[in-house]
Amino acid sequence: MSFNDAFFASPGGGKKSGGRSSSQNKRSGKRPAAKQGSRSTPAFGRKGGRDAGHAGQAKLQKRKEVLGEDIDSDDSAGPADDSGEDDSDDEYAHETPAEKRLRLAKELIAKIEDEERDQADGKDIDVDAIGDRLRDDLAESKGNLKRKVQQKYKPNYEASDIVSHRRYRGKPVTCIAVDWERDTVFIGAKDGVITKWTLSTGERIVEVRKPLEEPAEDLSTQMARKAAERRAPTGHVGAVLALAVSTDGTFLASGGVDMAVIIWNPEFLQGLKLFRGHRGPVTSVQFRRKSHQLFSGSFDRTLKVWNLDAMSYVETLYGHQEAVLDVDCMDRDRALSCGGRDRSLRVWKVVEESQLVFNGGGESIDCIAMLTESVFVSGSENGTIALWDSTRKKPQHTIRNAHGANAWITTVGALRFGDVAASGSSDGRIKVWACDNGYRKLTPLSEIAIVGIITGIEFNATGSSLVASVAQEHRLGRWIRERAARNGYIHVQLCQ
Q: What global pTM score does this model have?
């Protein structure tokens, strides 16, 4: 039944009219006659009756035709436009997988050639160096790279082997971070100062002091809180306990007793972002290699994950029963932490949302360092150094009283994908340890004697140099004090 048939039908459709039923009228397509003396049903428009019905039907038909033309035109134009956009946006749409691999390989080699040419200062490029670098990059990506440098080290290093010993005329130095590619060193101290130095010359470039105490702000309104968050940070209120620089030198991260994590521009030490969230002093910060993912550990027994590309908080990792004293990580989306007096190490698998727990026994485990993705070393308050493998629950090798009786292991460092590790102690000595081929045993290799307490150790990428921070006190307290020590850092040339 059409629209007009339904509209012009009589209200008494079930009754006979003019000798024909309404059903017969519907089949014949004719309008039933109105009863004599009765009004006809009103119609649309000013004109009544059949003329108004035809006018409404004509308008409806015209509207359908117009809509139909618009839909047809849109459908016909769509595929042509899409195909044109695909052709213009992707010039490699038709290349095969083999052609893509070849193109990417050529781009990588060209990039390495440019870097080698810059290092050679206009001289001929060494083709063997390019091949060695490609092999090292492949082995490093698979976790199979091993830099063997222990044969080049001397048994003992004298004062002449120390390239520089720079003094910081302030409170004891608590932490150190080295950007080897950009020849810079950052140190943090208990007076809240972060200082940037040139590694090769020992020149002090810039420093950031703790902000002056200002009247407390009224943060009762949401607008005031947001304004405070947008304001660039100016420094830590209290001691700086941890420093870390990203692999590409874009960001410097610091943590302090004020429970804050601050992100800096390393070039000028300008504050970029202040992260709140920890409920205790931040004892350690560490960047994941070749990324801007940051891990921070705190006295509140948690680790937090931050994304510096978005300048945002990601998640909190729970599990330790005591303060988290040190954090380390490498290329994988994992982190290693030690829980101090809970005497445990934990490997956090962030993506899988799981963790591996290793119980060390003894006393507090204060420091850790990763040799490979699965091998790491730890140092304890009772002077014990342990070598671990993530596939085993117990240490591969343990050395008790590694620096002698009553010597506190205050920090450890390791050559990434290498065969050496180092430990610093409260007795002022740095010991270098050699790992065997299977990472099953540590043996004494070299020793560096310094007056003071070692609070941080970092190797360069090749293992030829070592930088360590030296202080009069332990970085977390004043249980030990060496008055004859010079606060600052040392740079030692281990081999050529």
A: 0.73
